[in-house]
């Protein structure tokens, strides 16, 4: 049975899969078939960008193999490319076009793009349900844990879930 909501997978890209984040890839790939609709975001570090100019971060350039998704999205998934922490107005508009009232959120990195995307959804009036066990930092577990603490306060602890609760529903 499919969950009548949107699964939003944030930046599960080859360049963000590290020993700290690799454990989320296979479960997300499996989980996507359980949802009515699936959206993936993919970070592409354009030139110029604030990531290059302010952070001196030059990885994940457009056409770099590291920008490729680290899993196979299902055939009907929408892929939203951007050079930002969040998905911006265009992602929110796409989700509204899908009549999404609730979005299940997972991906990499909890402390950056996942956090920003969750806050964007919340501020747009779309309920983010964060699948905490399917989120990870590409740097270290402590960043993931700190982000979960912040998100618990920002979007409410009841909106942080375990993927098993989705599968059991």
Describe, in short, the structure shown.
The protein has six helices and six strands; from the N terminus they run E-H-E-H-E-H-E-H-E-H-E-H.
Low-confidence stretches: none
Give the overall pLDDT as a whole number: 96
Q: What is the CATH topology?
A: Rossmann fold
Helix percent reads 25-40%
Distance between the termini: 9 Å
Kindly state the number of beta strands.
Answer: 6
Q: Major beta sheet, specifics?
A: 6 strands, parallel
Radius of gyration: 15 Å
Assembly level: single chain
CATH class, named Alpha Beta
Keywords: Hydrolase
Domain Isochorismatase-like: 6-154
Protein name: Isochorismatase hydrolase
GO molecular function: hydrolase activity
